[in-house]
Design goal:
The protein is an alpha/beta fold. Helices cover about 45% and strands about 15% of the residues. It has 2 domains: about 150 residues, Leucine Dehydrogenase, chain A, domain 1 (Rossmann fold, 3-Layer(aba) Sandwich), CATH 3.40.50.10860; about 230 residues, NAD(P)-binding Rossmann-like Domain (Rossmann fold, 3-Layer(aba) Sandwich), CATH 3.40.50.720. Helix 1 crosses helix 14, helix 6 crosses helix 7 and helix 13 packs across helix 14. The structure holds nicotinamide-adenine-dinucleotide. The site of nicotinamide-adenine-dinucleotide has 20 residues, from helix 7 and strand 8.
Amino acid sequence: MIEEVPPGHEHHTAAGAQREPGELSPFQAVNRFFEQAADHLHLGDDLRAVLGCAYRELRVQIPLRMDDGSGRVFIGYRVQHNGARGPFKGGLRYHPAADLDEVRALAALMTWKTAVVDVPFGGAKGGIICDPLTMSPAELQKLTRGYLRMIDHIIGEKRDIPAPDVNTDAQTMAWIMDAYSARHGYSPAIVTGKPIELGGSLGRAAATGRGLVYCLAEAARSLQLDLDGARVAVQGFGNVGSWFARLVGVLGCKVVAVSDVGGGVSDGRGLSILAVQEHARHASTVAGSPGTEPISNAELLELDVDVLVPAALSRVVNGANANAVRASVILEAANHPVSFGADQVLADRGITVIPDILANAGGVTVSYFEWTQNLQQFRWDESRVNHELQKTMSTAWRRVHERATRDKVSLRLAAYATAVASVATAERLRGYI
Ligand code: NAD
């Protein structure tokens, strides 16, 4: 008996958030930012048409024999948005509500993100509709190998390089590397985010959080923000949020609130992040961490802080709460945490938004370093990784900030314009259209 898992839960994001009626789809929303930049650059219709949609979208079925003997068919996607500047690059997520439109939006974000930080990659994303929490490790391994078989013909070390994303990790990447290497010979550069033992890069786990800290440091210098004693609130305490919260103290800030799916905690004097982390290790949530006050996710977003760092879900700052945000700076750690409408409201209110494609690009930057090390069969030490990351983030910040100042536009529009101009130039030089 083969049971089909239905494709496309069109009214959910992969993070499970409901889409409001009339709200732009994730891809429409990302494309609105692209269109603003295209207008700003007076981009021709030909290039707009090329960059406004994905280069290739693959939908595959993955038949699987489950542990209980039943047969199921899973649906997976790989979207390659643009490869003008280098191989397609982007994560692979496993989620019951993964849908093609969101995968497409995230693929486009990768194109713009890799271009902003000037790493020689394009943009891609993958997803499989499944509930990994209900599957055994053996089933997940078979699913991953089955997916690889179905997308093998469009990926490659110099074609498309997957990475971990929601509900996938270094182990998932190890399975992909093994399955791909069995077919093509030893190929560690086929995926990034691998275990260190298989060619993963030192410093990769902390890279996105560390990159956010470097970006905030540059922003403070350019915008004359005084971070000494500045209050910071972080929504999401996973890989990105927890590393950022641990590291941001070096700038003199204090983290006064953190939250996760189980709730949040606050302390106006500054939380001990190591203590919160220790509590979360046992309790699986930051909520209830000793010596702290409880705070809800909604309250955290409206807290009177200097810097708000959404590091969990998409569109958590939206039409319903944009007017209630009291932070003077929003550092976008998550992908697309501010809706298109809210972005306008925040701009009108004079709130500085440091956009996702710049702020959270530390992860893909160190993925690029991992790929480079794999191709060279050479390992960098962690201080070299962090030093190169700092250089990349600082240069990207300066390019974006200079454009924002020169053109008198928001950092978001400046980041998109920088990225779109760079991809458009690559398309023209290659003679694609
Ligand atoms: P993660 O799975 O490690 O952590 C996610 C965190 O969000 C967890 O603390 C979880 O409890 C919390 N969360 C989930 N649902 C929530 C809800 N409804 N309300 C409040 N909190 C909730 O993921 P991550 O790798 O830290 O990624 C976080 C965000 O950053 C995502 O948007 C991701 O796409 C983006 N991002 C990640 C990387 C990376 O390198 N990991 C790079 C760029 C962007």
